[in-house]
Design a protein that fits this description.
Elements (H helix, E strand, L loop, with lengths): L2 E3 L3 H14 L4 H24 L5 H30 L6 E8 L2 E7 L15 E7 L4 E6 L4 E15 L4 E16 L6 H7 L4 E3 L12
Parallel strand pairs: 5-8
Antiparallel strand pairs: 1-2, 2-3, 3-4, 4-6, 5-6, 6-7
């Protein structure tokens, strides 16, 4: 059986937003963001519509409050966006396919931060996992997070354009963490290949490896 999964930036953006809405780790920063926006809007409204411009002290307090809580909301949004990017949009030029009884997962990572966060260099990773070794598979229907252990081979490309592999290692009980933003569904495909998957709530951990 051979199958190539479709992965697009649009699917990843949707998966990232879904993580923020559904994973419990995002609950506190979500509340902080919403509350800060409400307070910021309230300060703005009071300052503009309820306080005369002659009352510069009260007007100044409202202006400062509006700005401060808007900054807090922006910071909370940035933190959530950064966390939700992990294992989703941080995986660049991602490919996933099944061939000869193996699940292969290829991706690259950004070579720098800031404006280069969406740009990869010539390096890349390939994880080739034997389907019949996949075990302890779990799936969260809300966040669409999939976790499982598998055995196989790991490869590091020093140059993906020249297919130059400079590192190779065995995968023994490798913990794979993916989000089911693929077409067709990875979760359904694994089940169709005989993988037993437990449905439960899976929480994102800040300590999750970036790859």
């Amino acid at each position: 059986m051979e199958k190539e999964f479709t992965v697009s930036d649009k699917m990843k953006r949707k998966a990232k937003k879904n993580r923020i809405k559904t994973e419990r780790k995002f609950k506190v920063p979500r509340i902080i963001k919403v509350a800060s926006l409400i307070i910021s809007l309230a300060c703005f409204s009071v300052g503009i519509f309820a306080i005369p411009y002659s009352n510069t002290k009260a007007f100044g307090i409202c202006a400062v409050g509006c700005a401060v809580f808007l900054i807090v909301a922006t910071i909370a949004h940035g933190i959530m966006s950064n966390w939700a990017s992990n294992q989703v949009t941080t995986r660049l030029n991602e490919r996933l396919w099944i061939s000869e009884g193996k699940l292969s997962h290829f991706f690259q990572t950004a070579f720098a931060g800031g404006l280069n966060i969406r740009h990869a260099d010539e390096r890349g990773y390939l994880f080739v996992m034997d389907l019949n070794t996949i075990r302890e598979a779990k799936y969260d229907a809300k966040s669409k997070r999939i976790e499982f252990l598998a055995d196989g081979k790991g490869y590091h490309y020093s140059n993906v354009f020249k297919l130059t592999i400079d590192k190779e290692w065995n995968l023994n009980g490798y913990k794979a963490v993916l989000y089911d933003y693929m077409e067709p569904s990875l979760n359904e495909t694994l089940e169709n290949n005989g993988v037993a998957i437990t449905r439960c709530t899976l929480d994102f951990s800040i300590s999750d490896a970036s790859i």
